[in-house]
Amino acid sequence: MKPETTIAGQPASAVAGPPLPVGYARRNYINAKYGAKSWLLTLDHKRIAILYLLSVTFFFALGGLMAVLIRLELATPEGDLFQPDVYNRLFTMHGVMMVFFFLIPAIPGVLGNFLIPIMIGARDLAFPRLNLASWYIYNVGAVMAFWAMLHGGVDTGWTFYTPLSSIYSNTYVVVTAVGIFINGFSSILTGINFIVTIHKMRAPGMTWFRLPLFVWAHYATSLIMVLGTPVIAITVLLVGAERLLHIGIFDPRLGGDPVLFQHLFWFYSHPAVYIMILPAMGVISELVAAFARKPIFGYAFVAFSSVAIAVLGFLVWGHHMFVAGQSIYSGVVFSVLSMLVAVPSAIKVFNWTATLYKGSVSWDTPMLYALGFIGLFTIGGLTGVMLATLGIDAHVHDTYFIIAHFHYIMVGGAIMGYLGGMHYWWPKITGRLYPAFWSKLSALTVFIGFNVTFFPQFLLGYMGMPRRYHSYPPEFQVLNVMSSAGATILAFGYLLPLLYFVWSMRWGPRASANPWGAAGLEWQTTSPPPTDNFHARPVVTTPPYDYPEPAPSEEEVPVVA
Amino acid sequence: MWPNAPLFPEQGSALAAEVDHLVLFSLLGSVFFSSLIAVLLVYFAVRYRRRHPDQVGTVVHHSWKITALEITWSVVPLALMLVLFVWGTRVFFYQNRPPADAATYYVVGRQWMWKIQHPEGNREINQLHVPLGRAVKLLMTSEDVIHDFFVPAFRIHVDVLPGRYTTYWFKANRVGTYHLFCGQYCGVEHAKMSGQVVVMEPSAYEAWLAGSQGQPPLASGEQLFAAKACNTCHRPDSAARAPVLTGLFGRPVSLADGSSATADESYIRESIVNPAAKVVAGYQPIMPTFKGNVSEEELVLLVSYVKSLSPAPEVKK
User: Would an 8 Å CB–CB cutoff place B272 in contact with chain A?
Assistant: First the structure.
């Protein structure tokens, strides 16, 4: 089916002026109602996605600002810019803001919320009120952590290791922990909402194996959110109990076990890494298919690899604790299980790459982000295999090698995926186009800035520079200066989209229903979509990523699968 | 390998070379796969670039070929990873199993310093002097939060936990001064909880021990054993109301609940701070806890005194 031909319910333009692009909707979900109340009490998943966009952008900017300050301090070996306790609060709040209030909610909250109902041909999520509640709960948690930050912050590291966090730190541990606890309910409710929606709200003909891979990825993510988040909630409550009531759980002086905390913490926080990266992988599957204009190679393998990652992700937490005092035999088990997780990740990377083969590959901005993602995620994944190797981890554990590795996954992976997705769906979300030159420049700047920032940190870590150091021996300075210089490039790269996205909302050219010529239900409705998403209930008759075959070539006769 | 190669930290022990070999192997694999992906991505993106706006991709239909490819790129990386896993595990076991003849040094970490006691009784802070070629085992504990003993030149980290002992071992093979870092974030002055490991020729080490560079030892373990009145019950005559400690160290102990334990350092430490945890068969749980009455450093002295009551463990071949 040709996307342009399915747009219905579009009144002929009666307004004077230049003609609108095909499928641009003058009446849409954005201007369906006016006023702050219409936004703050909205039950429309698309408007809630916009609310999430505003919130996560704020916390991303905040976390980014702290990253800039951290890199400034580390430009010189001496701790000369901040006092050590200020520096410790900076990296702690950077981690807390980025992990809990940006990376975890960003793609599900913004893109997942906006797209899942449209992609499956539904009018909304299964529980619109729950969806709005998720956003409010998220904000209550985030504001608590923000309040703690304004009043002096936390200095335990985002990992809250005990007994430092439960007894020794005299900062706002409990307020921040309660913020994280509350925020967890937002994750759980979003996860339940997505699972029920994907099960029950699919349009006629939208079978499981016709679901876009973005939806599969969010389904796997939602499983982790629902099953994992309660564990972190219990864990932070126990830290609070020990801190406030001196109930001995983690501090050996009170009869507790400090390593128990690490087991509980990583039982959630390792799967949480997959909450951050799986949705980004879903985005990349969409981008690669759309900009190669062909079905994703090995659709079923990519779909099930998401589920495999979600399941295996629960069995690898102990690889954070190889040198933490757990039995070396536990280390052996966690080492081999961690390597198994690399297999479904490798399957994804190879399938994305193979999709480009004989594709019609465009170099539009979202594709540049997608290609960047695949490269950086590959490096992040391979260094992850190195870290899963016991003999290597025993040396680079808690050094800058780890910092570099997980930033390749979180920043090179999750944020590149998020930005790629924002660039891809921006015309759908806002009905506006952004400037091609500046957006390509931003993709390139982010890619270069990212590598200059984080590649030197692999070397620093191997040379032995520990993480969370406010000052360091002078021989590490050259690489640190490189890293700080890269961070300024990266910051510039992140600032660009903020500027031209805002610009495009007022001055950007209007977008057609399907500016990329992509398959998928979201491109068959108007841009921006109407409040009910579709003018008529879609009926799905084709597999995903269905692009009409070109004229049969002479070399091979296609076999109908 | 190349002891002074740039970007590789200096190697201070035989283990360091083992770890570097392992890293080099994994690095080769990583460079191969990341280059493969990068080259294919760029090649496909250029070779199959969109030439006119309506062009669509060509669907690959050979289903058995797809399955074969999927299996290949799952199994080959898995096989390589298993090689890495086995090799890495061997290195890790080597890193974590000190030889039986290793000399025991005691390390107590606290916010934000390292306190070290030599088997000869010398004590120092934030510095560890060791002789070249001696297998050194560090028995480590913390007085407060979790710390981590990290010497990049020896290529190993081990967390230092409150309330229990962990061990770290190395055999230095190059004279030099190496960084000692706290590798686990431990509070405000974490970055200052660092020091040096000084590897010396054995003769120089002897001279250092004899010199006054070390801090004066506290009351020796034996004096402490008497001062804390341990010897009123733990005594080798008929008035003993507690197990005799002579010859105890390193032996299996039968416990009152029918199980058994090995009398290692952790066992002795636990028996002092939490005597009820493991009661020796045939004795009453009458010993009071010394938790809070002895510091970790005093515990170290008591443990080393109890050890000294047993002949040096024979070297197992």
Answer: no
